[in-house]
Amino acid sequence: MNKNERLQKAIEATIIAGHQLSNEAFYYLCHNCEETDPLAIMNMVLHEIKNLKDKPFFIEKKFLENIVNQLTQTHQAAQNRKNQTTNQTTKSTEFNKEEEEKIQDCKTQQPSFRPSTAFDENTFHPYAKYISSELKILEDATDKLTSNGTLEEYNTLFQDRYKRIEKILRQRIDVKAATPIREALKSQPKTKLKIICMLTEKRDNKQQTILSVEDLDSNATVLVPNKAPDEVKKKALQILPDQVICIAAIKTKSNLFLAEDIIFPDVGQKTPQKAQEPIYAVFTSDIHIGSTKFNKEAFKKFILWLKGKYGTPEMRKIAGYVKYLLVAGDIVDGVGIYPGQQFELTIRDVHKQYDFAIKYLEKIPKYIEIVLAPGNHDTSRKALPQPAIPSDYLTAIEGKTNFHSVGSPCLLSIHGVNVLMDHGRSLDDIVATIPGMSHNHPEKSMRLLLQGRHIAPVYGGKTMLSPENRDYLVIDKVPDILHAGHVHVLGFCNYKGVLVVNSGGWQEQTDYMEKLGLVPTPGKVPVINLMTMEITVLDFKTEN
Fold first, then answer.
1. Whose C-alpha in 22, 174, 307, 364 is 20 to 30 A from the C-alpha of 212?
2. DSSP 444-506
3. Sequential DSSP letters for 376-395
4. Are 484 and 266 spatial neighbours (Cβ–Cβ below 8 Å)?
5. Residue pLDDT, tens place only, 40-68
């Protein structure tokens, strides 16, 4: 085995034994692998730890230094004995067989040890290179799409949505006894009950909010009066069309219901899954290769940073731990996406746009796993769920094992952390529908998607939906991280244990963005430590 293979084996042996190297210990091991045998060192370390009463989880640099010093002294003593024995052989033909065996044992166990020099903080140490990838695609509808666009298929889609979110709602203790609308309509006046329903229409005025709702069998009208508690009125404003909810209501003398509370499917408070070692994932989107507004200088710095050739010592230290790069769509600017786009393109052939994009991305170290999902500017169909970008446009990544093309949305696992990645087109509909929402705070709109357990609930808005036989946009499994892009603005928050991240992008403000009053944040990249779930934002538009 060469030095890199032995270093990887050393780290794997450490992990299998149930331990982790601290940052300083790892750097020490890497820095000395030229002159020492890292696998032999770690075997000795693990042997020593077995004899300890209190076994450490993290192995510190000092522990390694002591082992190396012991091995160096052992080797030197053996060498001295050898020299002494050699001198004796010039005087006598007798040779001590036992001494020779000791010398040979020392040679076999630990060749060429040398005390370490101090760690140089300017040296790049790619920790992630020696850690095996743990990337799994858990859910991706790419190969399951069957729609022909018929009315019957739309009925099937919304029925599936209703049934699956109803199941999520009924898992709540306060919803288990919900009544079907048909039975609720038969109730006596002043009866308090709960109904699970889908919103078909919402009418707001200063006096009240009127909700038209239905389930699989019947429909009803629910009134949220002006005298209702402020919390209930606030919830009523946040309901999206075609969203499945539960309403606690009082039956009136007519077939009208008065709302007392509105219950969303929502996510429960959770403890996120975390990686067992300090591995980082980079989240980005909206590169828009081919656009005159693509900030290539910032993107080049980003690539150099991943290679350990750009940034402060702290930035380069983080780069050494990056194992995953997740791109949530709009890799290229596309062609014919909006009127007048041809005047804002530097590359007018979409195939060439992808070729240029891959030329950038293939410069990233090959030990980093790159996941590419489509956006509305990419060549995948526009209706959700979007299948992966057609392979005809990604011929440049054929045979490159660290590239992965997936659909949108896609649920994947990286080092045990579940990430739900979607381009985020539905954020436009939320901003247009819900008061107080804006593109400048995308994380707030993304929280509503988790609250409603659906990636794109609104039908008939800016987000096109494909009538599949299953609604692949329902959030059945609550992720540890929800990642989106589309709005070109960095935003993140923690919602009930789920890390919500909108990763901004790499495109400067276009004329269209200016008309919307949208100020993008190009070049700002969120990097997540999968072991701690902490976010570090790196800015590649500023000088470091």
1. 174
2. HHHHHHHHHTBS---SSSSS-B---SS-TTB--SPPSEEEE-SS--EEEEEETTEEEEEE-BS
3. TTSSS-SSBSBPPPPGGG-G
4. no
5. 788 878 878 877 877 787 888 888 888 77
